[in-house]
Design a protein that fits this description.
single chain; mainly alpha; two-stranded antiparallel ribbon; two-stranded parallel ribbon; 61% helix; elongated
């Protein structure tokens, strides 16, 4: 699905996940239109890089933050599982949901549980902090872009 993010207009829907087919369809667009595109936001499917480089020569690739955040959370969860031997002694329920949630929206009681969890494993704590730094950075960037538009 291709849309203009500034106007939210749908431009094209391509019913394929094959690089060559996507390239073939997009190459039908006039060259001046394709050259005018300077930024493309995509999920992290590896095939999109070749498509964009081939079809939109002046475009910068931007991976959408939701897919990046999903990958960060998956990796954080792997680390949590690797730390299970330490975490199981804590007798805290729903450890997974505590570390994967946005730390700023946790209630006081849950924040105290999260602190206990993170103190039990330096590795898990470091991974959690990196995830939160990324999440906060993306929120700041989003807010700055919104301010520029208004």
């Amino acid at each position: 699905m291709i849309c203009d993010l500034e106007t939210a207009n749908l431009i094209e829907v391509i019913d394929s996940h094959q690089q060559d087919k996507i390239i073939e369809i997009l190459m039908e667009w006039p060259l001046e239109v394709r050259e005018a595109i300077t930024e493309v936001s995509v999920d992290m499917w590896g095939g999109f890089t070749k498509v964009i480089q081939t079809v939109f020569p002046n475009a910068r690739i931007v991976y959408d933050r939701f897919h990046v955040m999903k990958i960060l959370n998956e990796e954080l969860n792997k680390i949590r599982k690797q730390c299970n031997s330490v975490l199981k002694d804590l007798k805290i329920k729903r450890i997974r949901s505590l570390i994967l949630k946005n730390g700023q929206i946790l209630m006081t009681k849950k924040k105290s549980y999260l602190e206990i969890i993170l103190k039990s494993s330096e590795r898990l704590s470091n991974a959690y902090q990196l995830k939160e730094i990324f999440r906060k950075s993306m929120k700041q960037i989003k807010n700055l872009k919104w301010l520029k538009l208004n």
